[in-house]
Design a protein that fits this description.
Pfam families: F420_oxidored, P5CR_dimer. This protein has 12 helices and 8 strands. With 269 residues, it is an alpha/beta fold. Helix 1 links the parallel strand 1 and strand 2. The longest helix is centred in the C-terminal third of the chain and has 22 residues. The structure holds NADPH dihydro-nicotinamide-adenine-dinucleotide phosphate and (2S)-3,4-dihydro-2H-pyrrole-2-carboxylic acid (A1CAB). The site of NADPH dihydro-nicotinamide-adenine-dinucleotide phosphate has 27 residues, from helix 1.
Length: 269
């Protein structure tokens, strides 16, 4: 890809995407420019990734073909105010914030602007991201093909209807956090039984990775895969029974509902 990529905001999510893009070889470090609030973040990004850095958001906005707004949702208003007259007509502005809608972006820019709304996740850093995307009507079919290629350089990407985007953090944007909690809990349980902690994390994480690959690669229903682990009268079904009695699935559903409600509440910020 020969296009330039800009990041306004260079925190955890931006760095995960930058690392993923560079690792894939699709993008060279000198094609990327990022801005942030503090020099320390920029020094880190420059030495870690070899990208161009600046504290000037306008410099990033002027030079980018793909411009990621990678700041917290409550900063979108002031950042757009700063850059709205500087973005080139063909630049595709890409949002990654929970709750920021296409309509919000069009109104904030007060001009015709190409916008892609996305929801990535931090496993992008290791090339295993899951991102969803939707676009406004200024983004052409050729544009979206290029945007998808960019997102696929650090994982999987799916185009979605915008009305579903507020529900995406709960299932893939935020969910790595609950999976880490699960892995931590599995490791604690192992340590409780005397397994050394470093081994416990490796065993737990590899089991989660393997189970996820089984769902993706066998096409079997998760219930069927679970049944294959539960030997009748065996040990696994005891664990499953305890999880069900303690509302494991119901708790996950409630957590996801809270996450979605908060994503909706962030709209328009
Ligand atoms: N973290 C995640 O897993 C995910 C996050 N997102 C979204 O990504 C966005 C960023 O989140 P995250 O990366 O976690 O947050 P971070 O706090 O890690 O990063 C925010 C970045 O914004 C920079 N910043 C703050 N003010 C300005 C400014 N005025 N001009 C330029 N840059 C500024 C900060 O600079 P400095 O470092 O110098 O303070 C920092 O680099 C959010 O909108 C969030 O919803 C989406 C999906 C997943
Ligand atoms: O917590 C948040 O609001 C962001 C959105 C998805 C992951 N982190």
């Amino acid at each position: 890809m020969s296009k330039t990529i800009g990041f306004i905001g260079c925190g955890k999510m931006a760095q995960a995407m930058i690392e993923g893009m560079i690792r894939s070889g699709l993008v060279k470090p000198d094609q990327i420019m990022a801005s942030a609030k503090t020099e320390s973040t920029l020094q880190h990004a420059s030495s870690e990734f070899g990208i161009q850095v600046t504290t000037d958001n306008v410099e990033v906005a002027r030079s980018a073909n793909f411009l990621f707004l990678a700041v917290k949702p409550n900063l979108y208003g002031e950042i757009i105010e700063e850059i709205k007259h500087e973005v080139q007509p063909n630049t595709i502005v890409i949002t990654i914030a929970a709750g920021i809608s296409l309509d919000y972006m069009e109104k904030a820019f007060e001009r015709d602007i190409k916008v892609v709304r996305s929801m990535p996740n931090t496993p992008s850093l290791v090339g295993e991201g899951m991102s969803t995307l939707c676009k406004n009507n200024k983004v052409t079919d050729e544009d979206i093909v290029e945007v998808i290629a960019l997102f696929e350089s650090f994982g999987k990407a799916e185009v979605m209807e915008e009305k579903l985007m507020d529900a995406i953090p709960a299932v893939s944007g935020s969910s790595p956090a609950y999976v880490y909690l699960f892995i931590e809990a599995l490791a604690d349980g192992a340590v409780l039984q005397g397994i050394p902690r470093d081994k416990a994390y490796r065993l737990a994480a590899q089991a989660v990775l393997g189970a996820a690959k089984m769902v993706l690669e066998t096409g079997q229903h998760p219930g069927e895969l679970k049944d294959a682990v539960c030997t009748p009268g065996g040990a696994t079904i005891e664990a499953i029974a305890t999880l069900e009695k303690n509302k494991f699935r119901g708790t996950i559903l409630s957590a996801m509902e809270s996450c979605t409600n908060k994503s909706k509440a962030l709209s328009g910020k």
